Amino acid sequence: MNPRGCAGSPLTTARLFTxxxxxxxxxxxxxxxxxxxxxxxxxxxWEYGANMLTEYLAEARENTPLIAATCIDNPFNLEEATRFSxxxxxxxxxLTGGLIDILRSNKELFQGxxxxxxxxxxxxxxxxxxxxKAISMISYGFEVLEYFYSESSTRDVVGNVKIPVxxxxxxxxxx
Length: 175
Hints:
- The chain is mainly α and 175 residues long.
- It has helices spanning 23-35, 48-60, 78-81, 86-105, 119-123, 128-139, 145-152, and strands at residues 41-46, 66-72, 165-168.
């Protein structure tokens, strides 16, 4: 699946792709399952996508049509994942650039003082952290980035996952 705004898909609401969002995963899985209920479904998530998939699985518990999943390089702790290391810097810059491109293409959805977004600051963001302070955390009703990251991290909800999941960590991640 392509998370909201990615791969040229238009946004219809003032919410961009974020590792906090399991709604898109749930929608994609339900769509496929309704279209092909006889199909065996499994899922793979990578990096922020792994966090989204883990969040979905923790929320769905045993009420998912998936029989198994693999999560590769799940950050588990989003605050830790956004701290800079040589490995994270390259990914962070690429992701920040992508988020800025999506925002630039859909700016009108985020403009207006009543919405509380800082579009100009987000367009000048140098990191995912900067971008999420200006846009993402506000979309989810948070005022403090650390609370947004804490609530969006999956390290404390892995125990709620009720299907087999293979977690593969290629890089070191603190739980």
